[in-house]
Design goal:
Helices cover 50% and strands 14% of the residues. By secondary structure, the protein is an alpha/beta fold. The chain has a single domain (5-350), classed as Deoxyhypusine Synthase, CATH 3.40.910.10. Helix 3 (35-52) packs across helix 15 (311-325) and helix 7 packs across helix 10 (200-211). The longest helix is centred in the first third of the chain and has 18 residues, at 35-52. The protein binds nicotinamide-adenine-dinucleotide (NAD).
């Protein structure tokens, strides 16, 4: 019988529930082992310190394809339990994967071993290593971005503002209660995607701008950087939890330098953890060590840890350790989304314009 799309898209990816597994004894025992286990233990202890430091603003950076891989609920649990104050991500995780699932679609278990990619192409199935996606459904993401852009006042937006509008749209349309974008909107956690058009969002915005060549929505990545830097300046102390690497890693590290340029006395990031498989030999950003970042004045050297591991293995252990050690219980919701909206209002009023924020 000829294979059909349905015959490939059967078993869905399920998101790991860090609340269900108390990993504390396991991670504690890793302290007495060697190699990556001991590094992982140290990273978990550093994250726990971030959570217990009342003055620390926690930035979480997300690259790679982690939402499609089953880490969505972990990020949502971090949002709901005050374990993250701001998120910086690539577009793939937030739009192609999180918004995609918020629209009601799923990621499916596939195989990297004997996949016939030509057949998958014919059946409109996209593959991420061992995961399959229905390409026809993915087009809904592009279209949703276009529809949201059409509904907004034409002007430049930071990606944070646009992503907040997506959260609002999800609430209005009663979709994606378990999504990162909806929960970030609900709990006031700003989400930044510095390379916003480099994902499904780009297709939607290209269609929108073509329909409205003169007056359209555009994304202002300098505004993103300024907003992120304002959070850093306001927070003073900060910690980084970085999954994978890529643009989000550099963007958030650079806020220390930007703060200096703005004349603010903002210290280096006090805590930093990165989980990655990138290595250091190519001199590129993703594999560069956090000690190296300290030579640029971005990260303090005392409480940093690289963990060389694939993220889906190490993150549930490190974040699960933080969750079950309960350091988050004494933290407050920082609501940096409101802080930035208030700042926007202040700037517009100062210019004598009518405020359009709500
Ligand atoms: N990832 C996708 O499938 C996808 C899909 C559409 C668009 N894009 C776009 O491509 C651009 C680049 O993607 P990127 O930001 O993910 O950068 P990237 O692919 O270069 O990944 C950054 C670094 O993280 C490491 N890494 C990635 N996944 C990892 C994992 N699971 N465990 C450990 N290390 C891991 C990589 O080895 C790399 O060194 C982004 O703008 C993104 O939106 C990506």
């Amino acid at each position: 019988m000829k294979p059909t799309q349905k015959s490939f898209l059967k078993e869905t990816i399920k998101h790991i529930d860090i609340k269900k597994h108390n990993v504390v004894p396991l991670v504690e025992d890793m302290a007495n082992m060697a190699y990556t286990s001991r590094d992982l233990n140290r990273a978990a202890v550093i994250y726990d310190k971030m959570l217990k430091d009342k003055n620390c603003c926690i930035f979480v950076c997300i690259a790679g394809s982690l939402v499609s891989a089953g880490l969505k609920k972990m990020i949502v649990d971090m949002i709901q339990n005050k374990m993250v104050d701001a998120i910086v991500s690539n577009g793939a995780n937030m739009i192609d994967q999180d918004l995609f699932e918020a629209l009601g679609y799923k990621h499916y278990k596939g195989t990297p071993h004997n996949a016939d990619d030509n057949l998958l192409r014919d059946l409109h199935i996209d593959r991420i290593y061992d995961t399959y996606i229905n390409e026809d459904e993915l087009k809904e993401c592009d279209e949703t971005i276009r529809v949201i852009a059409e509904s907004l006042e034409p002007r430049p937006y930071s990606s944070r503002e646009f992503l907040w509008e997506i959260g609002k749209w999800l609430e209005k349309n009663k979709k994606g209660k378990d999504s990162i974008l909806y929960n970030a909107y609900k709990y006031g956690v700003p989400v930044f995607v510095p390379a916003f058009s480099d994902c499904s969002a780009g297709f939607g915005l290209v269609a929108h701008q073509t329909e409205h060549p003169q007056h359209h929505v555009s994304i202002d990545s300098a505004k993103d950087f300024l907003e992120l830097t304002k959070i850093k300046i306001n927070a003073k102390e900060s910690g980084l939890m970085m999954f994978a690497g890529g643009v989000p890693k550099n963007f958030v590290q650079d806020t220390v330098v930007a703060a200096e340029i703005l004349g603010a006395n903002s210290p280096m990031h006090k805590y930093a953890v990165q989980i990655t498989v990138a290595d250091v030999r190519d001199g590129a950003l993703s594999g560069s060590t956090l000690k190296e970042a300290s030579s640029w004045g971005k990260v303090s050297t005392s409480l940093e840890q690289m963990v060389y591991s694939e993220v889906t293995v190490a993150a549930p252990l490190i974040i699960g350790y933080g969750y079950h050690k309960k350091g988050w219980k004494t933290r407050k919701f920082s609501n940096y989304a409101k802080f930035l909206q208030d700042d926007d209002k202040k700037n517009l009023t100062a210019k004598g314009k009518k405020c359009r924020c709500n």
